[in-house]
Automatic annotation (TrEMBL):
<feature type="domain" description="MAM">
    <location>
        <begin position="2"/>
        <end position="148"/>
    </location>
</feature>
<dbReference type="InterPro" id="IPR000998">
    <property type="entry name" value="MAM_dom"/>
</dbReference>
<protein>
    <submittedName>
        <fullName>EGFL6 protein</fullName>
    </submittedName>
</protein>
<dbReference type="InterPro" id="IPR051560">
    <property type="entry name" value="MAM_domain-containing"/>
</dbReference>
<dbReference type="GO" id="GO:0016020">
    <property type="term" value="C:membrane"/>
</dbReference>
<dbReference type="Pfam" id="PF00629">
    <property type="entry name" value="MAM"/>
</dbReference>
<dbReference type="InterPro" id="IPR013320">
    <property type="entry name" value="ConA-like_dom_sf"/>
</dbReference>
Amino acid sequence: SVDCSFGRGVCDWKQDTDDDFDWNPADRDRGDGYYMAVPAFVGHKNDMGRLKLLLTDLKPKSSYCLIFSYRLAGEKVGKLRVFLANKKTAPVWEENKGKDEKWRTGKIEIFQGAETTNSVTFESERGKGKTGEIGVDNVVLISGLCPED
């Protein structure tokens, strides 16, 4: 497995320069490192912030599982979407409201065909809310299919 966490991970993360705002590091409650977050008050409604994970060395014709923690905290905080580079138009994963302030786990299967996926983009869309945040943490890429819960 490849650890893509923000504090000590080995992966290559890039802020998108064509979007409306950047994701920023936020300290974890437990004080052990940080996660990436977009506060609810940043930008205007429907503004986008994209954080891209560059994937290199993925073998063609193999399966991978991207596992990550995410949180949508706050009323009308917005949307979190995940896009794969070879399927640009539609998100492969989307969440638009949190039931509570808790962190949850997201999983995405990445099937490498002849064309390989060379990046994964986490996109935050600003909602109407003024409080809360969208956060992503503990991003790990494992080879093989995603495990059942």
